[in-house]
Design brief:
It is a single chain. This protein has 12 helices and 9 strands. By secondary structure, the protein is of the alpha+beta class. The protein has 2 domains: 15-183 and 264-343, Alpha-Beta Plaits (2-Layer Sandwich); 185-241, 5' to 3' exonuclease, C-terminal subdomain (DNA polymerase, domain 1, Orthogonal Bundle), CATH 1.10.150.20. A hairpin with a 2-residue loop joins strand 5 (108-112) and strand 6. Bound molecules: magnesium ion.
């Protein structure tokens, strides 16, 4: 249920309904490459050096995921195009993307070089969907990139919605939808719940958020850390985090997506670090896909319906690959090693 804001953060209005957007550029590095090179558009390609840093959605449809050894990709899918990193291009795109975000609200919490939470409470004129549509359109028009957006009352719901929205879509979790999906969320799909934590919860017979009902922090502290117990209780009660942490504030330097050596915010992050972040992610989990409805998408999207056609296979290759091997693994079989989401 939508509820009144309990406290103001960084200039947010003190009353009203909380509206959090999670904006996340789709397949960021690959989308920048496809934006800048028409020959790559609509084709399976990867940004890689020894391992895949970022596959395009066309490549993901084949089963290629971040963290996969490049030689394996070249062996199994010889038609897949390969590009190297262009850190300056990614950094420039990141800066422009955040300039768009900050035009909609000053309350922007970077999650990485290409994703952020935005608190647009009181700025959406009662139309969060309209604001999200405008943000996606601005990112497409001004930066040339597809950005999926999730809208929710908390950061968790917004993030789950943006995951469901990918690629190049929009999902709005209103009060009615949240009431339906929150209890059904699987605990292993909650960001921050890793395999070890989930094993303990699973062993105790806890599988979905609804299973947490009636448990308090002390109950859960017998299974997981105090911080996790507190978080799970808040998720079960619908009081989870909606606070935007602004870059540069004391005690926030360890947040994902920011470069502690060079100061806060994506502007000061070097994309060599971003590359290493994405390389270490592996494949993202399919968080939220089981319980959320289908996303609304842009008809002009260039990365929707990622399929590799036979015609595409017959086009000239950017590089020549050895012959194919066995069937690919699926993305859902892999788990991320770090990071909070997909590239
Ligand atoms: Mg992304």
């Amino acid at each position: 249920m939508m509820h009144a804001i309990r406290r103001a953060v960084g200039g947010r209005p003190e009353t009203g309904t909380v509206v959090i957007l999670h904006a996340d550029a789709d397949a960021f590095f690959a989308s920048v490459e496809q934006r800048d090179d028409p020959a790559l558009r609509g084709r399976p390609m990867v940004v890689a050096h020894e391992v895949v840093a970022c596959p395009s959605y066309e490549a993901r449809a084949l089963g290629i995921h971040a963290g996969m050894p490049l030689r394996q990709v070249q062996r199994r899918w010889p038609h897949v195009l390969v590009t190297g990193y262009r850190a300056e291009a990614y950094e420039e795109a990141s800066v422009r993307l955040f300039e768009v975000f900050r035009r909609f609200t000053p309350l922007v919490e970077p999650g990485s070089v290409e994703e952020a939470f935005l608190d647009v409470t009181g700025r959406d004129r009662g139309d969060p969907r309209g604001m999200a549509v405008a943000l996606r359109a601005a990112a497409r028009a001004e930066v040339g990139l597809p950005v999926s957006v999730g809208v929710g009352r908390t950061k968790l719901m917004a993030k789950l919605a943006s995951r469901r929205a990918k690629p190049d879509g929009l999902v709005v979790v209103d009060a009615e939808l949240e009431a339906r999906v929150r209890p059904r969320l699987r605990l292993d799909e909650l960001w921050g719940v890793g395999p070890t934590t989930y094993e303990k919860l699973h062993a105790a017979g806890l599988f979905v958020v609804a299973d947490l009902q009636g448990l308090d922090e002390d109950d859960l502290k017998r299974l997981v850390t105090t911080a996790m117990a507190r978080r799970l209780v808040s998720i079960a009660r619908g009081t989870d985090d909606a606070t935007i942490r602004l870059p540069g504030r004391a005690g926030r330097s360890a947040r994902a997506g920011r470069c502690p050596r060079r100061g806060p915010g994506p502007r000061s992050c070097r994309c060599s670090r971003a590359v290493s972040i994405v390389r270490s992610r592996g494949c993202s989990r399919s968080t939220g896909r089981r319980v959320f409805p289908a996303a609304s998408r842009s008809s002009s999207a260039t990365t929707t319906a990622p399929r590799c056609s036979s015609a595409a296979r017959s086009r000239p290759r950017r590089s020549t690959r050895p012959s194919c091997g066995p069937r690919p693994e699926t993305c859902s079989s892999a788990r991320p090693t770090s990071g909070t989401g997909e590239a």
